[in-house]
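Structure representation:
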Amino acid sequence: MKNLLIISCLLLVAAGASCDLRSGIAKQEMEKFSGTPTPSISPTPTPEPISPADIITVDTSLEGPPVNVDGFEQKKTVACAKYNRVMINGDDNTVTVKGACSQIMINGDNNQVVVDAAMSYTLNGSGNTVKYMKFANGKYPVVTQNKPGNVVEKASIATPPKK
């Protein structure tokens, strides 16, 4: 009987300790201050309008064969005649791409690439610099960087890449 009384008392103490004694209003006030603050939403910057002189019209229905540049410390000029996809595989390459391409993909580090125009750039390395001259079909290119430390920017004038 004594054991039953002790167990009953312990259950009552446990039940009392687990109850929230605050009123609903106090609980709501505490929840206001205990959550993570919501960051303010900054407006999305509007891109600069593209000058008609910087637009290359491309027939996107064409699909030429992929163009590959493989190796290290290569200096090459390649052409996108039929909306090709260009893959640059290696490090320390200097590549000039003529024409409008569907995609430029760089798999390596420290490559210097000058492109007439492309719809997208994918960089799977770091330290790469891509300069493009024009916009394909008047659209800003889609840039995907899978590692930090790359630069993709519009070139102001057509200059050969520097090593």
About this structure: Helices lie at 2-18, 24-34. Residues 56-154 form one domain. The mean pLDDT is 85.
